[in-house]
Predict the 3D structure of the following.
Amino acid sequence: MKGLVRFLKGYKLACFGVVVFMFVQVAAALLVPTLVAGIVNDGIVPGDVNHVWALGLAMLGAAAVSAAATLAGTYVSASIATGVSRDMACALYEKAHRMPHLEVGRFGVASLITRSTSDVNQIQQALLVFIEMLLPVPFMVVIGMALMFSKDPVLAAGIVGVMIAIVVAFLVLSRVVIPYFERLQRQLDTMNLTVRESIAGVRIVRAFRRTGWDRLRMEVAAGDYAATAIKTNRIFAVVVPFVMLLFNATTFAILFVGGNQVAEGSLEIGDIMALVEYAMLVLGYLLMGVAMLIFIPQAQVSARRINEVLESEALPLGDDGASKKSPLGEGGENGKLPLGKGGASEDAADEQRARNCAAIAGQQALGQPVVEFRGVGFSYEGAENPVLKDVSFVVNPGETTAIIGATGSGKSTIANLLMGFFEARQGDILVDGKPLGSYHATDLRKRIGFVPQKPFLFKGTIADNLRHGLACATERQMRSALATAQIADFVEGLEDGLDSPVTQGGDNFSGGQRQRLAIARALVRRPEILLFDDSFSALDATTDFRLRRALKEDAPNSAKIVIAQRVSSIADAERIVVLDEGRVVGTGTHDELLNTCTEYRTIVQSQEG
């Protein structure tokens, strides 16, 4: 829990206000039994009606003050709890975006979702419980015990013993139930994972008639969670009646001992009534606090899980903060420009793009590679063998460098290393002559137009998705990128054109259409480096040929890295790098490799039949 205290720093004034409101609430509540004792001892017994009326009105005032303080404290405490949970959820969201892929894999997507939702909600509930139910307890105990000792030290000492017994019972209880709460959160992760897989793979489940198996898997996950929850509830089912027994026994003892003292004349009737009220208030708040403390072990587990994420490794290249601007600056509200209203912003963007291309052309004239891998090695955590071993190659401006190899040879790992998602264990990766680690993530990735192996589109419109590549992209820039990606005719044929809706994941488009839209998203920013991770696999041969030809014409100065399975997609590349079991076994053009590289020749022959 200590690691999460930093989220309360922005609510210092509100926390101070809550403490004040709780003190007033407790003081006013404890004033009522004192006034009751005064009414009985000094009003009813002597028959002083005026005194009864005066103290009665004072009781109403005290009750009103206590109620007002309670309402104010509840409002402020709710503001604190919801604000802290919001800040915590935002911190987890930002950390997840800055987390290396290996760390994401270590936690798992399902667990990260649980930590960002259920665990944050547990912290919010625990904070509310602490402020509203537990924070008043110290005030109530200290002030209440002082008042009880002032009335009768013997009875007050007995009540202290009961309170100690309740606290000890809770300490024992917490040591028993914390492991159960930890297990519950892990099992909740498993349930989330099962539900997520069932929904994502519903077509496979139905296609292979595995509905029964999937239902059984969900029943097992839910059954494990239910069994642990039932065990936890059984523990509380035994403890809560025991604590209530202590409460009622204490009340009986006060009435029995106090009644004898009243009979002996050593204690007044009003005082015993006040003692009963004090005891009920003090023990009631204590019991309520103990009952609510069941949230604390759950919150401890959730806090530990949240801290694991927040304290995990961050990207070595820095974060991708929202405050960073796009390579060409921002345009309009939220970085967007209205379609068809490029104006001066469009001209400025074109000028900046020209300067970028001129700079790349200058590098080409100097012969400096845009990307260079020098003896790079990489292995995944826990893997027996490295996935890349001593990989070296260069990517020159304006050229196409292709990477091909068998499945599992490390092609996509090269893309992840270049994007900064993973960090090389050995060797160096240079971009424009500078080590990859010297770049901020934002500065690095604005140089790269990345098309992943599995194209993903966001819910919104086609224009919104293209602007993920360049926030200030104009209509002309977007249409140019669509034309290069060989999908302009399709988009123009839609009723709403660039404003046509895109469902989550782009499921309202075919695989080839999604792939070409993802390519257009990368092209719209006119980057120095175009990185295609097996991005032509869903295209037919004709579209593939036209797209590669358009890339040469429309992005002549960009260094293009094409990771591919099909030889036909890379046969015209200026340089082809052949990987086999993580090693470079051949580098050259298509014709050169046919004569010098057995592995490449085998790939070609297998595809040509």
User: Anything to note?
Assistant: Confidence is low (pLDDT under 50) at residues 316-350, 352-366.
